[in-house]
Design a protein that fits this description.
By secondary structure, the protein is an alpha/beta fold. It contains 7 helices and 5 strands, in the order E-H-E-H-H-H-E-H-E-H-E-H. Strand 3, helix 5 and strand 4 form a beta-alpha-beta unit.
Amino acid sequence: ATSVASGERHVLVGAPGSAKAPSLRHLAPELLSDSPALTLWTRRPGDRLPVWLPFHFFTWRQARYRDANASLAATLRAWLEQHDAAGLWPLVEVALEDERLLLIVDGLDEWVSESAGRSALAGLETFLGPRQVPALVSARPYGLDRMPLAGEWVYASIAELSPAQQRTLAGLWFDAVRGAAKPGPGLRGQESPGLD
């Protein structure tokens, strides 16, 4: 078994509704946790900094800009700024330069146009090519059929969720969002029933 922080590149493949995006959103904090629950995939990343980026945002910038603003680095900076986290950019910039980044890209099949998707994918592969930066990306199978990844990637398929499991997951997600909006226990200390 390998860890996502091992330096390899991983692709999480799943159908719509299989919880790819929530899995990725949960993974980044797990990687930083002193006691992660997903120990198989989240062995301590050492000095890696996990950074999550939606592919759609990268394709939007590819469609809008034809200069350095379309780069992966500029996109990461813009994403942080858009989410009131510009103060994190110096940390991310250093991790980019010395290859301590763990890049998590959600939704390779979600683009503003196919040409922007191809351009963003080429930009991602150009960035990763010469570097020892681990990456974890997610995609639907048909997205990978239309725009396959180059290079060596480890593929993992996520099982489809039943409608009941989807409702349970959505309920847990909304409970967590409500818990973040007001004081309360949220999901802390609770099991994840119904997702077995």
